[in-house]
Amino acid sequence: MAVSWRNWLANEGVKHLCLLIWLSLNVLLFWKTFLQYHQGPEHHYIYQMLGLGLCLSRASASVLNLNCSLILLPVCRTLLAFLRGSQKVPSRRTRRLLDKSRTFHITCGVTICVLSGVHVAAHLVNTLNFSVNYSEDFMELNAARYRVPGLTGVCMVLVLFLMVTASTYAIRVSNYDIFWYTHNLFLVFYMLLMFHVSGGLLKCQTNLDTHPPGCINLNKTRHQNITSPAHISAEFHELLPGEFSRSDELTKNTLVKICAEEPRFQANFPQTWLWISGPLCLYCAERLYRCIRSNKPVTIISVISHPSDVVEIRMIKENFKARPGQYIILHCPSVSALENHPFTLTMCPTETKATFGVHLKIVGDWTERFRDLLLPSSSQESEILPFIQSRNYPKDNWLYRLRRLYFIWVCREIQSFRWFADLLCVLHNKKIIGEKYQALNSRLFIGRPRWKILFDEIAKCNRGTTVGVFCCGPSSISKTLHRLSNQSNSYGTRFEYNKESFS
C-alpha cells in the first residue's frame, strides 16, 4: 500500500518543515562564519598562521552555540504545557508538533556531539600549525599564553562523553539512576562553556586603516636602500616570513602597501554569552517555578497492589487541575533526593472530586523502592481488584467531535488485563455475570496484533473522516502504527498519528 501524501502531510509535514528550517540555520551559520574567518581582513594574520583549521573551528563553534541554546527549550516542560493547552497556538498540528520536543532535544544533542568532534579535531590542527608558523613579530597572537581555553575544553569533552554514553538506551533501561545523575552534569558543562569563551585566545586586528593586511613596515626591513615600489615587491619574500605571504597575490600585484604603524589586536567579544544566556535563564526560572510549585503537600489516600506488579496510587493536592491524557512528575525524597519520573494520569480530578491517581508498573530500582516504601512486604503479592464507580469526566478541547473510541490494549501475559478489568466493564456499562472476565473474553485475541487488518476495518467504518491514532507503548509498536497511519486506503480515511511524550 503506497504512502498517502495527504496522510504524510498531516502527520509529518510540519515536523519536516521545522527540521528543514533548523538545518538551514545550521548550514547558513556554518558557512557565514567560515567565510568570515577565511576572507575577513581583520583575521588575515591569524589565518596565515592557522589556515583552514581556524575556519573549521570557528564555524563549528558558531553552530555549537546555536544548538547549545536550542537544546534547553524542549526541556522547559511548564512552558510547553502552557503553549499546548492554551489558545495561543490555535493549530492542532502545531500543538502536536510540541509533542516532538523530546525528539528535537535528542537531535540537538547528536549535533552537539558531532560538531564537538569537528571542533576538537580543528583545534588539534591549529595547535600543529601554530607551532610551525608562529612568528615573534606578532607576540599578541601567542596562543601558548592562554591555558584556560585548553583546560576547559578538555573538561567539557569529558563531561559530554559521560552524558552521551549514559544517555544510551541500554544504560537508561538497566540503570536509570546513572542516566539521571550524569545528565544533570549539563550545568557543569555550561559553566565550563562560559569560562571557555572568556579566555581571550582569539584576536582580530583593529587598525585596518593604518595597517592593511599584508603591508610592509619600512622601519622593520633589513634592506635600507629600497627606493622603488618595484624593488619592494621583488624583495617581499625576504621582508616577511614565508608563512605570511601569498605567492598568487604577489604575481598579480606589482605594488604593495606601506604600513603606517604596527598591527594592533584585541580579543573577540565572546558570542556564546549572547546565544545561551536567554534559554539558560528561561530554563533556570522554569525549574525554580517547578520547585516552588512542587513544595505544596500531596496526600496519598490509598495505595492498591494489582496483579502483574502494578501499583495504583490515589492522591489529593490543593488546587490541582488536570485533564485526561496529561502526566505528572512524581518525586519522593525518601527514595531519591534528585530523581523524579513522569507517569500518565489514570484518574483525573473533577469538579466534584479532587482525587487523582496513577498506575505504576514495577520495572526498575526507583519503582521498586517506591513500592516498598508504600506497601508492607506482606501485601505486595495480594490480589486486590477494587470496584471503581462511574463518574463524569471533563470534556477535552477537541477541534473535531468524538464519535467512536477504539481502545486496543496489548499485553505480554493475560494476567495483566486483570487489574484493569473492572474499570473497562464499568466504562462499557456491562455487568459481570458468572465468570468475572466474561465481558473481556469476547474481544480477547491471543497472538500478535494484526494491525493491517485492524486499520482497514477502522478505515471502512469511518469512511471519509479523520481518525486520531494515539499510542502509548514501546518504540516497535509506535513505528508500526506510525507507518500504517501514513499509508493510503481506499475508503478516504485519514489517520493522524500521536504518541505519548513525556517532555
TrEMBL record:
Source species of the chain: Echinops telfairi (Lesser hedgehog tenrec)
Gene3D superfamilies in alphabetical order: Nucleotide-binding domain of ferredoxin-NADP reductase (FNR) module (3.40.50.80)
SUPFAM superfamilies: Riboflavin synthase domain-like
Oxidoreductase recorded as keyword: yes
Signal sequence segment: none
Keyword Metal-binding appears in the UniProt entry: no
Record's keyword terms, sorted: Membrane, Oxidoreductase, Transmembrane, Transmembrane helix
Entry-linked PANTHER family: NADPH OXIDASE, NADPH OXIDASE 4
Protein name: NADPH oxidase 4
Residue span(s) of domain FAD-binding FR-type: 293-401
Principal location class: membrane
Membrane topology: Multi-pass membrane protein
Transmembrane stretches, start-end: 12-31, 59-83, 104-126, 146-171, 178-197
Cellular compartment(s): Membrane
